[in-house]
Amino acid sequence: GVDFSRELDLNRAYIKCILFDLKALWYERLPLASLIERENERNPVVTYNDALINSTLLSIEAVGYTIQETETKKLTVKYNVSATPITFVFELMPGTADQLSLHLIVPLWRTVLLLDGQKRNLKAILEQKDAELEQYRLEGAVLKRTTVQTSKFDGDAFERYYVDQNERGITREDRTIVQLLIPLGNRYHLKKATHFIDRTAVPANVVQSPAGPSTSVSTGGTPKKRKKKRHRIPGFPMKFPELADQE
C-alpha cells in the first residue's frame, strides 16, 4: 500500500510518503516547501505548489506507481490533471520496526478489535431477542406468522460453524488470534496497547423491549389486561458484559 499525509510540526508543514507491504515499510518525510522546490527543479514544465499537492497527493488516487530499486526505493507517482500528466518522485528509506507497527500492525489490530466487538454485540442482541420472545411465550402470546419463526440462537454453534466451514483455510496462527480474543483481560490489554476506543456499544433502545404490544404476536383472542405478576425466566433481562468493556 501507499499513503500520503500532511503533518504540521513546529508550525512547519511536512509531507510524508509511506510505502508498505506485510513485511516491511519504506518512507520519506520532508518539508512541504522542499518537496515543491525539488519537483519544480525536476520538472520545470509544471508549476508545483501547495494547491497542486492538495488536489493530487492528498486528495485522489494516483493513476500509476513505478518503483525503481536503487540503494533505497525510488517511487514515482503519476496523476492526470486536466489531461496533463503530473508526477511526483520520492526517495524512500527503510522504516523501523516501530514505524511498521504504527502504520500497519496497530491499525490491523484495531480493525480486528472493532470487528470482534461488533460480533459480540450482535450476538448479545440476538440472545436478548430470544429471551424477549420466550418471555412473550410464557405470558401466552402466540406467533401468527409461523413462516418467519426461527430456532433459538446458539452463540457457540455459530462460532463453531464458521471455523468448521473454513477448516482448510484456517491456520494455527489464525486460531491463536481467535483464542487470544476470548479472555476479557486480553481484549482489555490489546485495546490499551493500540489506543483503541470502542464505539460499538449497542444503544439502549435497540435491546429494550417495546413499550407497546408487538404486531407479530397475539394472545389469540380479546386483549386482556396485563397482569402485574409476570413469569420470569432465568437470565432475563440479560446483561451485556461486552458493553461494560468499553474504554
Write the layout of secondary structure elements.
Blueprint: E1 2-9, E2 12-20, E3 25-31, H1 32-42, H2 50-55, E4 64-69, E5 73-81, E6 84-94, H3 97-138, E7 142-143, H4 155-165, H5 172-180, H6 184-193, H7 204-207, E8 217-218, H8 241-244
Antiparallel strand pairs: 1-2, 2-3, 3-6, 4-5, 5-6, 7-8
Brief rundown of the structure:
The protein is of the alpha+beta class. It has helices at about 30-40, 50-55, 95-140, 155-165, 170-180, 185-195, 205, 240-245, and strands at about 1-10, 10-20, 25-30, 65-70, 75-80, 85-95, 140-145, 215-220.
Q: What does the model show?
A:
The chain is 39% helix and 22% strand. It folds into 2 domains: 2-94, Dna Repair Protein Xrcc4, Chain: A, domain 1, CATH 2.170.210; 98-198, Helix Hairpins, CATH 1.10.287. It is elongated. It is built from 8 helices and 8 strands. A hairpin with a 2-residue loop joins strand 5 and strand 6 (84-94).
How many individual helices? Answer: 8
* H/E element sequence: EEEHHEEEHEHHHHEH
- What value does the average pLDDT take? 81
CATH topology of the largest domain: Helix Hairpins
The radius of gyration over CA amounts to 28 Å
> How many angstroms separate the termini?
30 Å
By secondary-structure content and strand pairing, the structural class works out as alpha+beta
Give unreliable regions as ranges.
206-225, 227-247
Q: Any idea what the shape is? A: elongated
- Judging by the overall fold, what is the CATH architecture of the largest domain? Orthogonal Bundle
CATH class value of the largest domain = Mainly Alpha
Task: Tell me the helix content.
Answer: 25-40%
